[in-house]
Amino acid sequence: MSPPADANANANVGQKVVQYENFINEVLKRDLQKVLEQRDIVYEKISQYLQLKNTIQSLQEAESRRLKTDVDLGCNFYVQAEVDDSSRIFVAVGFGFFVEMTHDEALRFIDKKTSQLTAFTEQLTKHSAKIKANIRMVLEGLRELQGLSDVPESRTTDVF
To answer: What is the mean pLDDT of residues 56-68?
Structure first.
């Protein structure tokens, strides 16, 4: 005697539900987390460049070539340093390279670099929105498979 058709259909639906849940948890949510972490790293870089820009502008306003500062040697060990001529500075341009620049050159570079990084964060934000939409779509598919009624929008929460 063969099992009833309803039992087979329910078993298939159950398997599909488990597959979709695994896809959400193991693929989509992990991808979303990676994109958001990458975006946070880019925001941190933008913050560092803007901090450098403020420092350069302070140096220009002071009109003094001599500079006293604390230098981090690592592990929060600082040493006092004195710079005789601060008219030229070294700026990290990427991939571990530093370029010696005047204050004006550095400010122009920082403006270009921050606009480039801002455009990249916008791309990452759009990518994360697509992943969130995919998660929402799969969740809607799960709801349909299980025959659940629509959940009111006020009860839903953001994925991340």
So the answer is: 86
What does the H/E/C string look like for the chain?
A: CCCCHHHHHHHHHHHHHHHHHHHHHHHHHHHHHHHHHHHHHHHHHHHHHHHHHHHHHHHHHHCCCCEEEEEEEECCEEEEEEECCCCEEEEEEECCEEEEEEHHHHHHHHHHHHHHHHHHHHHHHHHHHHHHHHHHHHHHHHHHHHCCCCCCHHHCCCCC
- Counting every residue written for the chain, the total comes to 160
Report pTM. 0.75
Per residue in 4-33, pLDDT (tens digit) is 556 666 667 778 888 888 888 888 999 999
